[in-house]
Design goal:
The complex is a heterodimer of chains A (459) and B (401). Chain A has 459 residues and is of the alpha/beta class. Chain A is built from 15 helices and 17 strands. In chain A, the strands form 5 sheets. Chain A has an 8-stranded parallel beta barrel with strand order 1-2-5-6-11-12-13-17, surrounded by 5 helices. Chain B contains 11 helices and 13 strands. In chain B, the strands form 3 sheets. Chain B has an 8-stranded parallel beta barrel, surrounded by 8 helices. In chain B, strands 5-6 form a two-stranded antiparallel sheet. In chain B, strands 7-8 form a two-stranded antiparallel sheet. Classes of the chains: A alpha/beta (459), B alpha/beta (401). The structure holds flavin mononucleotide. The site of flavin mononucleotide (FMN) has 18 residues of chain A, from strand 5 and helix 6.
Chain lengths: 459, 401
């Protein structure tokens, strides 16, 4: 007997501040007007996606001492735009990236609990840990957190927020006008957290929300990040969307769950994925090439090279050969506010590999960058893309994907109209939502206490 | 003998600028027993539908804006901490999120959430309000609060109680200054999408705010482009004279809790630079004065104590309230923030009773005349403080300093 087909989870990342958004296309709309968010969210909901996802960046990126101006710049506040989207959607989950470094648990827990109430149980929190003093310059506390401590604070932040989410058990409100008892409990929401990072106590003032706790996401790939996810997250926003890398990551992370008394089903692995659709595979490949040319101008190619070289390369010709000098060692100081620069953990090796490849294949700087960075995950006809997604999920390279279209706000439309019906026909994607909450969409049980799960994590 | 009849003596006409009207939304209303009244929907206070219905009613009445109360602790009658009472509304949702949730469901009315400056990051507040301005298409405002409550200090754990109020007002003024500088940190036309040079923005039109104060420093620029209104209006309650310097520096609207025309005049005189000074009144409105009085007594009886307030409490008819509002307008107020005693009863009494009464007297709008909150309040849209002054029309100007 064959194994039953896995059901695919799909989500949509609003294409924002990243290097894949093509803003120069005539079909590109506003990145900030609410209409763009409404269009995008409604398309995702029409396609029965699990959720809409927003990334976060709390300082405008700089490169070479200047604000980076080649990509989309500017984004809305996560909580505010998600709360507004709750008014124009009914089922779609609303996932926001919120930093655990430049926030306080009481306020963030209040915002997520409020969002969960106002959306009828559709809130999710992607906990990220950006540590850099560069971002810290926008906050009261400054760059106060040493880099090694970022997951310690994240853990305790999430732990504390969990205590606040659980501070009301849900039965406190009577609102009985006859007896005059509004509350059953004279002291609802009591909490006390005494830890290394937070020493707070009092009363949480938002009652228990429909999901109890928002769905928790983690995004980050280090060993600490994976361990954090295994202990405390419901889903991972991952980076590996290919068969080999995806399966390795999947097996590694799912293998860590047992340590926390969890089963593999309790953590969904959802890599980011881009796509280009055409009527035929050949047409899609041609379109994909054009998209890459729009994404990587000559100026952009030089800047991308600087992420690896960590030095000013503005004197180089993007249509010429790669620099024969080596990257500057140490923390990347040329590109500030960018998590992706840390992908290149051994820049000297990357530079050597790139130079060799460019020489062997006769690639210019721009051609090399196009070849080596952020190739589209799924390119082809709707059938090819549907098969590709399904194959990766059934092969345990992922539980689904967070799609990042390259166009705002219509970049999801064709996918919704052509790929989703094919996945539905294959029996691997829902035709209707089963329940009202995001936990329902993701097939996650009611939340469990996080504190005991976290306890052994440092051992 | 020459007679100068004051407008309140001739209620048929009320020459003078139209009044601005706002309503303060909180729980089931401002009377502690309001949640027990018929139609109060007390079991729905934490749902989006509850707030959407209130805002729709306020918008049907053409009000300038609604405010949403908030706090970072449980509501309490005890300034030091929770009071352990079970007979009063406790618990609330984040006001900015409630405002955002109702924004797409309304079209004209201003949405003004309360934010506690004492425990929040101005960077977060600035982008949240800018985003509220985007999702409401230019209808966001901000009501800034300070908090001295020791229990709130304990919720954040960053400092120790007691906090010095004077220090907190200074900090709040810095907070608002940072919020506004961040709104200005993108010039309106910073986004250029210049395909020829590959630049999405003109970085010369993005500005570091470089705020340095005794309590915090903030670099900027914002991550959110300049909001539709440029600077959404900022408001605050002038609960006592200690707040006036803060208001004078920071607010477009000050709410004053004067009890009579004399106090109104004093408050207005003390706030010479504040564009709008609004009177703050708790109102119980009925067809007959005696009915309103009896209703208030019934609420007091249910509650077991007479209702008291920092603001004047008005129980009477819409016509009598209109008289009072116009008298206080004479004393210098430009508008009012009314606190409905019972939202289920007194909000419709405002929109369906008071508003038509003021319209008959020529003192209130008959339709929305502007699409932004600044527009409704008669405030021009300011240029970014960082924008280079436009070149003088006559080309003879000497170089700018
Ligand atoms: C797919 C993915 C998406 C991410 N999105 C964000 C984001 O939106 N905002 C942010 O501050 N960091 C983001 N991060 C960065 C992580 O939160 C984390 O700070 C970073 O990856 C370093 O952690 P690590 O050492 O565990 O990888 C993302 C990381 C990944 C892998």
């Amino acid at each position: 007997m064959s194994k039953p087909l896995k059901q695919i989870h799909l989500a949509a990342h609003f294409p924002g501040v990243n290097s894949t958004t093509v803003w120069s296309d005539p079909a590109a709309g506003s990145q900030i007007d609410f209409d763009s968010f409404v269009h995008f969210a409604r398309t995702a909901e029409r396609a029965k996606f699990d959720f809409l996802f927003l990334a976060e960046g709390l300082r405008l990126r700089e490169q070479g001492g200047e604000i980076y101006d080649l990509d989309v710049v500017g984004r809305p506040d996560t909580f505010t735009v998600l709360a507004a989207l709750a008014a124009v959607t009914e089922h779609l989950g609303l996932a926001g990236t919120i930093n655990s470094t430049f926030n306080e648990p009481y306020e963030v827990a209040r915002q997520f609990a409020s969002l969960d109430h106002l959306s009828g149980g559709r809130a999710a929190w992607n906990v990220v840990t950006s540590w850099d003093a560069f971002t810290g310059e926008n906050f009261r506390r400054g760059g106060f957190l040493p880099r090694e401590e970022r997951y310690e604070r994240a853990r305790e932040f999430l732990d504390t927020a969990g205590e606040l989410f659980d501070a009301w058990d849900g039965g406190e409100i009577l609102a009985d006008p006859v007896s005059g008892e509004f509350l059953r409990d004279a002291s609802p929401g009591a909490f006390a957290h005494r830890g290394e990072q937070f020493d707070i106590s009092g009363h949480f003032n938002v009652l228990r929300s429909p999901q109890g706790r928002p769905v928790i996401f983690q995004a980050g790939d280090s060993d600490e990040g994976r361990e954090f996810a295994a202990a405390a997250a419901d889903a991972i926003f991952g980076r590996y969307g290919t068969l080999e890398e995806g399966r390795a990551f999947y097996a590694d992370v799912k293998g860590r769950l047992g340590r926390y008394g969890r089963t593999p089903d309790e953590l969904k692995i959802l890599p980011a994925a881009t796509f280009v659709l055409g009527d035929t595979d050949a047409e899609a490949r041609e379109l994909a090439r054009e998209v890459r040319l729009q994404q990587v101008s000559g100026a952009t190619a030089i800047k991308r090279l600087e992420h690896v070289w960590n030095r000013d390369l503005s004197g180089y010709d993007p249509d010429g050969p790669l620099p024969d000098i080596d990257p500057l060692p140490g923390e990347n100081t040329i590109a500030l506010g960018r998590a992706s620069v840390r992908m290149h953990r051994d820049p000297v090796a990357v530079a050597r590999e790139w130079r060799e490849r460019a020489a062997a294949e006769g690639l210019s700087i721009r051609e090399l960058v196009i070849e080596t960075t952020e190739r589209q995950s799924f390119v082809g006809s709707p059938l090819t893309v549907a098969q590709g997604i399904d194959a990766l999920v059934q092969a345990d390279a992922a539980d689904g994907f967070i799609l990042v279209p390259h166009l705002t706000p219509g970049g999801l439309d064709a996918f919704a109209d052509t790929v989703v019906p094919l996945l539905q026909e294959r029996g691997v994607f829902r035709r209707e939502y089963d329940g009202p909450t995001l936990r329902d969409h993701l097939g996650l049980a009611a939340p469990r206490a996080l504190a005991p799960a976290l306890a052994p994590a440092r051992g | 003998m020459p007679v100068h009849p004051s407008p309140s003596h001739s209620p048929g006409s009320a020459p003078g600028p139209a009044l601005h009207l706002a309503v303060a939304l909180d729980g089931a209303g401002w009377h502690p027993a309001a949640w027990r009244e018929p139609g109060a929907d007390a079991d729905r206070l934490f749902t989006a539908g509850y707030w959407a219905a209130l805002v729709a009613e306020a918008e049907a009445g053409l009000l300038d804006f609604v405010t949403f109360e908030d706090s970072l602790s449980l509501q309490s009658t005890d300034p030091a901490g929770p009071d352990g009472r079970t007979d009063l509304v406790r618990g609330r949702l984040d006001a900015v999120l409630v405002a955002a949730r109702v924004a797409p469901l309304s079209r004209h009315i201003g949405l003004v959430p309360s934010v506690v400056a004492t425990h929040t990051e101005p960077f977060h507040v600035s982008k949240a309000l800018a985003t509220l301005d985007y999702v409401s298409r230019g209808r966001a405002g901000l009501r800034i609060q300070i908090s001295e409550r020791p229990d709130e200090v304990g919720h954040f754990g960053r400092r120790t109680a007691p906090l010095d109020p004077a220090e907190l007002y200074g900090e709040a003024a810095d907070h608002v200054e940072v919020v506004r500088r961040l709104w200005d940190s993108w010039e309106d036309d910073a986004e250029i999408r210049d395909a020829a040079t590959g630049r999405f923005v003109d970085r010369a039109k993005l500005h570091y705010i470089d705020f340095e104060g005794p309590r915090f420093s903030v670099k900027g620029p914002s991550i959110t482009p300049r909001p539709p209104q440029g600077l959404p209006p900022v408001s605050a309650l002038a609960s006592d004279v200690a707040v006036y310097p803060f208001l004078a520096r920071s607010a477009d609207i000050g709410y004053v809790t004067a009890r009579d025309a004399g106090e109104v005049r004093a408050a207005v005189a003390a706030l010479p630079g504040t564009p709008h000074v609004f009177g703050e009144l708790t109102v119980f409105l009925d067809e007959q004065p005696a009915t309103a009085e009896r209703r208030l007594q019934r609420l007091d009886a249910a509650h077991g104590a007479a209702y008291t307030s920092d603001a004047r409490v008005f129980a009477g008819t819409a016509a009598d309230l209109a008289d009072l509002l116009l008298e206080w307008r004479e004393a210098g107020l430009t508008g009012f923030r009314l606190r409905p005693g019972v939202l289920a009863h007194d909000l419709p009494a405002i929109t369906r009773g008071l508003v038509p009464e003021l319209q008959r007297r020529g003192a209130f709008r008959r339709s929305y005349e502007a699409s932004s909150l600044r527009g409704l309040l008669g405030l021009a849209r300011p240029a970014s403080r960082y924008a280079a002054a436009p070149a003088a029309p006559a080309a003879t100007a000497s170089p700018a300093a």
